[in-house]
Amino acid sequence: MRFVCPLIVVTDIPRSVHFYRDLLGLRVKVDFGENVTFEGDFAIHLASHYAGLLGPEAGPITFGAHNGELYFETDDLESCERRLREQGVEFVHPLREQPWRQRVLRIHDPDRHLIEVGETLAELVRRLAGEGLTRGQIAQATLLPEEFVGGVLDPSHPESPTDEPTDGLTFPGCSDKLTSFP
After folding, report:
1. How many CB atoms lie within 10 A of CB 26?
2. Theoretical Cys-Cys bridge with 108: which of 14, 19, 90, 158, CB 3.0 to 4.6 Å?
3. pLDDT digit string (tens) for 68-106?
4. Residue 158 — very low, low, confident or very high, per pLDDT cuts 50/70/90?
5. Contact 181, 145 (CB under 8 A)
6. What whole-number distance in Å separates Cα of residue 29 and Cα of residue 20?
7. What's the CA gap between 26 and 5, in Å, rounded?
């Protein structure tokens, strides 16, 4: 068995495609009408169709439970926040720093699914280095392996992550260099 992708249920496919494609910058990979998969292998499914697949014994579909979230990263969190506010997106909370020093914001999608957008871990390391923290202090504050921190600060380091360029809000995902992350 292998995991394929997370799938969330939405009430309006065009509205949700607009949110994820036009506001969050995801690209549509496959569009089956009532089921749309985005690059990065995340999918949305029309609630009325999905309920029919489950059958009545499954019970009603509910929204806004805050019992899970979709997580994205960007190199430019301030521009992301500004653009989402300009588009009238509902914020759960504005940009704030987590205990491990990463800055994040949380929003609702049109069906009140919880979305977290954080700065990339490489951007976190660069920001803290810009604040004058040493590699060891950054590793201690963020719980990131010191090898990862060194790789970010020294691009020739063998552990250096490969960051994809972002244009305000593109989500390259988490670096697979963190497979040993505690």
Report:
1. 21
2. 90
3. 899 999 999 999 999 999 999 999 999 999 999 999 999
4. low
5. yes
6. 12
7. 15
Q: Which of 57, 72, 104 is a domain's end point?
A: 57
Q: Are 80 and 63 in contact (CB under 8 A)?
A: no
Structural domain span for residue 85: 64-174
Between CA 135 and CA 145 the distance in angstroms is 10
User: Is residue 74 domain-shared with residue 39, that is, in the same domain?
Assistant: no
Write out pLDDT tens, residues 92-101: 999 999 999 9
Output the pTM of the full model: 0.81
Residues 113 and 96: beta-carbon distance below 8 Å: no
Residue 180 lies in a domain: no
Instruction: Report the C-alpha dihedral over residues 161, 166, 168, 169, rounded to 10 degrees.
Output: -80
**Inter-residue contact 120 to 75 (CB < 8 Å):** yes
Q: What are phi and psi of 15, to 5 degrees?
A: -65, -40
Q: Compute the distance between CA of residue 143 and CA of residue 81 in angstroms, rounded to an integer.
A: 25
